[in-house]
Amino acid sequence: MPGGGMLPANVPYFNVRDRMDMHEPHEPAVTPEQLQAYHTSLYGSMLGMQVWGVDGFQIRGSKDLDFTAGGNPARYRYVPNNELWVESALSPADALGVAVHEGIETVLMMQGASYETAHELSNVFEWNLRREMIDGKLAKPSTHDQAVSMADDWLRSKLEMVKRGVGLRRMTFPKNEVEALRSRLQTKGFAFTTRVDAEQGKWRRDEVVESPLGKLRIVDVKTLGSLAKHPFLNELTPEQASMLVKHGKMDVIKFAPAS
Description:
Elements: H1 2-5, H2 32-38, E1 39-46, E2 49-54, H3 56-62, E3 70-71, E4 83-87, H4 92-110, H5 115-134, H6 144-157, H7 159-164, H8 175-188, E5 191-195, E6 208-209, E7 216-224, H9 238-244, E8 250-257
Parallel strand pairs: 2-4
Antiparallel strand pairs: 1-2, 3-4, 5-8, 6-7, 7-8
Helix pairs in contact: 4-5, 4-6
């Protein structure tokens, strides 16, 4: 596993929440020809991932109009899993900041953080690093290769702080349902829960959460407009049905143990 066990290997893409390719016009794949056109220079490695200088003009013209400064495989499926991208037009000092940002964003999103949370925390760490360069506490790199080497050292020295920067949200269940859900997870490998009121719209597909059942990954979320459309209507207890029928909108959430 790259990065000393932090990131999974041998998977077609990082299946995390908030990947931008879920939304148009961000395409989900890159062809070998496009990859050859995008790559300009291999700067080195960080967290066990190759850091490539890339042609942002080419990427914006053929793949992603919004590509700016850098990219990582947790956010963009078109970035290969073992790569982080930094726009080659950036100076070595700017490349250092972007590489740190993309590395932190990848680690946090792989922990289950949303893009918004990971991006905000990455900005904080990137700002601190840039502040260190401005204040003379950290020498500015003179080459892009040196920038990536410095980014790897800097990030590894703060990795535990980075990981503590985001905590998983906690999903709770009625106490009388916990054991039944635990049994279903053990026998089926997945289970369902229905959420209404403040819980409706709160949970997102691919999010990893803490719970009384351990860490769970939300596999799917389906929003229903009425109880009549509930996929497990016949399995609901009279008490559950009586409670849910009062609500015009509800989420049926499929979840499984987080690997």
